[in-house]
Amino acid sequence: MGRGKIAIKRIDNTMNRQVTFSKRRGGLMKKARELAILCDADVGLIVFSCTGRLYDFSSSSMKSIIERYQEAGEEHCRLLNPMSEAKFWQREVTTLRQQVQNLHHNNRQLLGEEISNFTVRDLQLLQNQVEMSLHSIRNKKGSLVQKENSELRKKFNIAHQRNIELHKKLNSGESTSSEQVTRSSKDPGESSTPRDSRVCIDLELSQKEVEDE
């Protein structure tokens, strides 16, 4: 015979109730884990036992799941009640306006304004805040200057290397042209010597012929 259907009601026996809770809690956690893995769902499960002990499971961060749940609940309420949505945006506007006023007030205090009612401790805290801001600004400025100097050094090295290469090309061109000029100046002298000797020989021969006649 098959198992009989269990009546869904509170179990009076404490021991049986605890055993059933432990078994069903394990099955519930297993199903939640399988649902998150198989369906790529964001699952959050919170269980309190009758003794107040907490058991939970979350596929990601429980805090983020609760925040999403609260936001979804507020969104659902706004959709159901347009008046509540208007009140929500009014609260948002009021909050943002207050934040802007606080920022303006803090900015004026950093500039040394509206500090007439400050105590020595308040002024010391403000001074520490300003010094920390200046320290951060100086560090940022120093890193930017160092980066710019590094880039300038790289550009200078590239320009210097190009300048050296141009000088080498110019020097090689000048040496080549000077060699060509030297060769051209030597060639006429070398070719004139044999020609002059032939002229002298011809003159001597002609003089002998005249004498013989």
From TrEMBL:
The keyword Protein transport does not apply. Residues 86-176 form the K-box domain. SUPFAM superfamilies: SRF-like. The keyword DNA-binding applies. It is found in: Nucleus. Coiled coil: none annotated. GO terms for biological process: positive regulation of transcription by RNA polymerase II. Its main location: nucleus. GO terms for cellular component: nucleus. Residues 1-61 form the MADS-box domain. One of its GO terms (molecular function) is DNA-binding transcription factor activity. Residues 184-213 have a biased composition (Basic and acidic residues). Keywords: DNA-binding, Nucleus, Transcription, Transcription regulation. Residues 172-183 have a biased composition (Polar residues). Residues 169-213 are annotated as: Disordered. PANTHER family: SERUM RESPONSE FACTOR HOMOLOG (PTHR48019). This is MADS-box transcription factor 23. It comes from Oryza sativa subsp. japonica (Rice).
